[in-house]
Amino acid sequence: MLRLERVSKGFGKDTTGVAEVSLELGPGEILAVLGASGSGKTTLLNLVAGVLRPDRGKIFLGQADIAQWMPEQRRLAYVFQDHALWPHLSVLDHLLLVMKQANRKEALGLLEQVGLGSLENRRPHQLSGGQRQRVALARALAAQPRLILLDEPYSALDPVLREGLRLEVASLLRARGVSALHVTHDPDEALAVASRVAVMSQGRVVQIDDPARVYAQPATLAAAQAFGRLNLLPVKVSGGRVAWGSGFIPVQGIREGLGLMAFRYENLQPQAGGEPGRVVEVYAGRGEQLCQVALKLGNVVVALEATLGSTVELAPSGLLSVFSQENPLDKS
């Protein structure tokens, strides 16, 4: 469906937008591009859309290299953060305007699918934020694009509406077999909607894999940091092991030298003989209690049922990763 081969784009002499990005998006797949502000994710989306032209590399849609095509030649639909609706048009007219052959019955059916079946005559100012975003999505689908591009589409919505709508939209796209490139800075959103996640940092894709694996087995420190809920402890690795509690634990990543051991809040569990520590803070998490525990190596946040001031012994529930401190983009 979509394939990028070593695509690069700079802005002036000193600013890199994207650097040597290669990725593929299959038919009916939702690929989430996750990254912080300035990571290059929106630049990447604009290169695919044709708003920007790459300095180097190729962008294939099907068998055609579209890197130098005009946006209107690409048959793509772009769903923006701010909906980009026309204030003078009704909900229904937004769809009819972009359809190759205006079909009122088909347009009304599509509005029904996105939950707007009774609102076809309303103008944008008469709709809620969530409803306006549904209009933008329905308009994109009505154009029968080869690919839908979504640029932080839920960032302006309140959390409850955002969580529900993103699942509805992902379900609708999959049901219709529509491929989508979905840019977001929200790791929960990427995990919830994507078939695969591409993590971007400093203009590069540092890992691309299925959501669960990217979260649980980050290939780089930058990929680990993209999802939050992360503890980093400075450690010394010897023979692929780190001193911990009354013994040693095996780690993956570097085998010798100094590094940062990275793990999620849920990766440490109470266990006799583990690393001893004292609970110095207790927080109310989302559906769990979080404790800040002071260890010899430093303070960590753990999903743990414990009382303030109590002593605990903690051990990892799986293999932890240690990354080099020299370059967070390196695999080791």
Defining traits:
single chain, 332 residues, alpha/beta, Rossmann fold, 2 domains, six-stranded mixed β-sheet, five-stranded mixed β-sheet, 8 helices, 19 strands, 23% helix, 39% strand
In short:
The protein has 332 residues and is an alpha/beta fold. The chain has helices at 41-49, 91-98, 104-113, 129-142, 159-175, 187-193, 211-216, 221-225, and strands at 2-11, 15-25, 30-34, 56-61, 64-65, 76-79, 147-151, 180-184, 196-201, 204-209, 230-238, 241-244, 247-253, 256-264, 268-284, 289-295, 298-303, 311-316, 320-323. The protein folds into two domains: 2-220, P-loop containing nucleotide triphosphate hydrolases (Rossmann fold, 3-Layer(aba) Sandwich); 229-323, no CATH class.
Q: How would you describe this structure to a colleague?
A:
The protein is of the alpha/beta class and 332 residues long. It has 2 domains: 219 residues, Rossmann fold (3-Layer(aba) Sandwich), CATH 3.40.50; 95 residues, no CATH class. Helices cover 23% and strands 39% of the residues. It has 8 helices and 19 strands. The strands form 4 sheets. The protein has a 6-stranded mixed sheet, with helices on both faces. A 5-stranded mixed sheet has the order 11-14-19-13-12. A 4-stranded antiparallel sheet has the order 2-1-4-5, covered by helices on one side. β4 and β5 form a beta hairpin. α2 runs parallel beside α4. The relative contact order is 0.12. The model has no long low-confidence stretch (mean pLDDT 91).
